[in-house]
From TrEMBL, chain A:
Annotated TM spans: 6-30
Keywords from the UniProt entry: Membrane, Transmembrane, Transmembrane helix
Source organism superkingdom: Bacteria
Provenance organism: Heliobacterium mobile (Heliobacillus mobilis)
The protein's name: Uncharacterized protein
Keyword Transmembrane: yes
From TrEMBL, chain B:
Keywords, alphabetical: Cell membrane, Iron, Iron-sulfur, Membrane, Metal-binding, Transmembrane, Transmembrane helix
Lineage, opening ranks: Bacteria, Bacillati, Bacillota, Clostridia, Eubacteriales
Transmembrane intervals: 15-33, 78-105, 133-150, 170-187
Pfam families reported for this sequence: Fer4_10, Fer4_5
One Gene Ontology term, aspect cellular component: plasma membrane
Protein name per UniProt: 4Fe-4S binding protein
Amino acid sequence: MRVGKIQYGFTVLIIFLSVIGGAMSLNFWVTKQTIPVTVMFSEDIRGWMTLKQVSEAMKIPVGEVKERLTLPVDTNDAKSLKELASERGLSTEEFKQRLFK
Amino acid sequence: MNKHSIFHPTRRMSLLRNASLIGFVMLMGYFGIRHQIVGGGPQGSPPLDSYCVFGGVETLWSYVTKGQFLQKTNLSNLVLLTAAVLVTLLTGASFCGWICPFGALQEWIGIIGKRLFGKQFPLPVHIDRPLRYLRFVLLALILYMTISTDKLWFEIHDPFKAFFGFEFELSPGLVILLLLSILSIFIERFFCKYLCPLGALFSLLSPLSIIKLKRQSSHCIGCNLCNKSCPMGIDVAHVQNTGGDCIRCLQCMENCPKPEALILESGKNPSPPIPHSVDYRR
């Protein structure tokens, strides 16, 4: 069976978008990151994690997280590691390492 | 209206294809910028990796064997991979020619190169042919390293992420991106032809596709305009069908003066071995 050029183009796009649309409607389209359940290495800690999320993942109090990161006690718990690292002119990787020293 | 204008009625297919590519490039740009502004995590915006088809290939092993996704990947990667594989099995490697945002960038840089120099500079056949296997080597290397390190090993080398991630920090990926951009000025779709690991995978599946691009030799006048217009350097003028390397951009069909010489047709027989040609465009 012959297929026209325009018909072909629409076929490509319709199949591709239909699979994505179908996955979305069936709740298979998951993109959000989740907080890691166990933390063993610095790679398990992500830059987007807030101090509170780090404390939950590492199962230690927020105060201890701040202490390990040498942050003032009144630091906002909702700030992310990436934010805090950039405020101090550090890379997120360098900053995260402090948690494991 | 100028016949070469993209808005000419005979070039409606090119208009549609370019509209599709622009759409996907803008979408990826939006995802990359949004992640940079909002940040990641459950409270933020997903990383670009979650929208990458190749991420699905990388995370598949981990998902099948451990039921876990590699860091920064998710179920969306497997959905995208499924969509791209289905498209390939039905229509050939059209993902590369109609959807891939990085392929689009390569193509547009190539157009700038053509405007600057009036031509492209394809590699000689004896270099081009072995170099095309490099993407299979790269695919195997990436899969091996990803499985053995249990993380997205290719991430820091990935030119796609270096561009659409909008970080532009000095990284191997950014250096590779700059090198590829320069090479694409001289050699159209350099990355797609020689380095793309996803393209390597699709080139293996494409010969199994239901819809094939076929040449009817009885209608062909041997003008070689198809070869000159092919961004992948395929010897379209001398094959029965275009095989695994073809990205189904349909430039050959659009430039062919004989409407019956190149056709899209559904067929059962697998394509013959991948044809290679580069000198035809000189």
